């Protein structure tokens, strides 16, 4: 006899909140707390983000500042998108600049110190697949003395025309690893790393600054943010 569909057990326990919603709620709360504890807030953008290097910067500045990189809508909600819902007077002005690769920087440091910090911050690293080569790298025919014979099969997989000659790795023809202004392939990224060539630079750019009695836009950072937006949409 088929089971009745009328008398099904109903679970009365509460549905657990999704972890993602909890994280977003915490970010909103943390940003609102930062508004209360820091004198100035900045929107910034960046090139070639490196998480570990950003973590090091956070540690360096933890006594005076706090950095947020989260979903743009989450940060906008925390700040407020209009005068009616902003967390502090004028804060909604920051929200419209939270687009593309942008984050929030709250600090008690003087403006001059912040501007110098962002202007001078520069961390070099190896380029990743898809990033744009800053120079042309060409290997000339002949022995590659920096590589051991065990690496010959791996180098061939990266597209290098190599062979073993009396136990030494030898390039049998000139080979262009990457060309300036063009995207770096996965093989080129691996080869550049093997060659020790760091072609990526992690940089930060200020876009705008808010304080309770002032608001300022940085033209260079704004232009950089808009350029990144154009790259994404193209």
UniProtKB/TrEMBL annotation:
Gene3D superfamilies: 3.30.70.1730, 3.90.105.20. InterPro entries: Mrt4, Ribosomal_uL10, Ribosomal_uL10-like_insert, Ribosomal_uL10-like_insert_sf, Ribosomal_uL10-like_sf, Ribosome_Assembly_uL10. One of its GO terms (molecular function) is RNA binding. It holds the Pfam family Ribosomal_L10. GO terms for cellular component: cytoplasm; nucleolus; preribosome, large subunit precursor. Residues 127-196 form the Large ribosomal subunit protein uL10-like insertion domain. It is found in: Cytoplasm; Nucleus, Nucleolus. Belongs to the universal ribosomal protein uL10 family. This is Ribosome assembly factor mrt4. It comes from Leersia perrieri. The lineage of its organism: Eukaryota, Viridiplantae, Streptophyta, Embryophyta, Tracheophyta.
């Amino acid at each position: 006899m088929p089971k009745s569909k009328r008398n099904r057990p109903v679970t009365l326990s509460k549905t657990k909140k999704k972890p993602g919603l909890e994280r977003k709620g915490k970010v909103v709360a943390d940003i609102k707390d930062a508004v209360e504890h820091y004198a100035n807030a900045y929107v910034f953008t960046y090139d070639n983000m490196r998480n570990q290097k950003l973590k090091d910067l956070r540690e360096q500045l933890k006594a005076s500042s706090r950095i947020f990189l989260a979903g743009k809508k989450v940060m906008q909600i925390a700040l407020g998108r209009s005068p009616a819902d902003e967390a502090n007077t004028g804060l909604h002005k920051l929200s419209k600049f939270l687009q593309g690769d942008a984050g929030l920087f709250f600090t008690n440091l003087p403006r001059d110190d912040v501007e110098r910090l962002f202007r001078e911050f520069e961390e070099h690293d190896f380029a990743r697949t898809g990033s744009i080569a800053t120079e042309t790298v060409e290997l000339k025919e002949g022995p590659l003395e920096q590589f051991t014979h065990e690496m010959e099969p791996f180098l061939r997989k990266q597209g290098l025309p190599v062979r073993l000659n009396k136990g030494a790795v030898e390039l049998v023809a000139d080979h262009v690893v990457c060309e300036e202004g063009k995207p770096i392939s996965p093989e080129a990224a691996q080869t550049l790393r093997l060659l020790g060539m760091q072609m990526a630079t992690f940089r930060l750019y200020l876009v705008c600054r808010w304080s309770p009695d002032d608001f300022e836009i940085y033209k260079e950072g704004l232009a950089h943010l808009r350029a990144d937006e154009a790259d994404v949409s193209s």
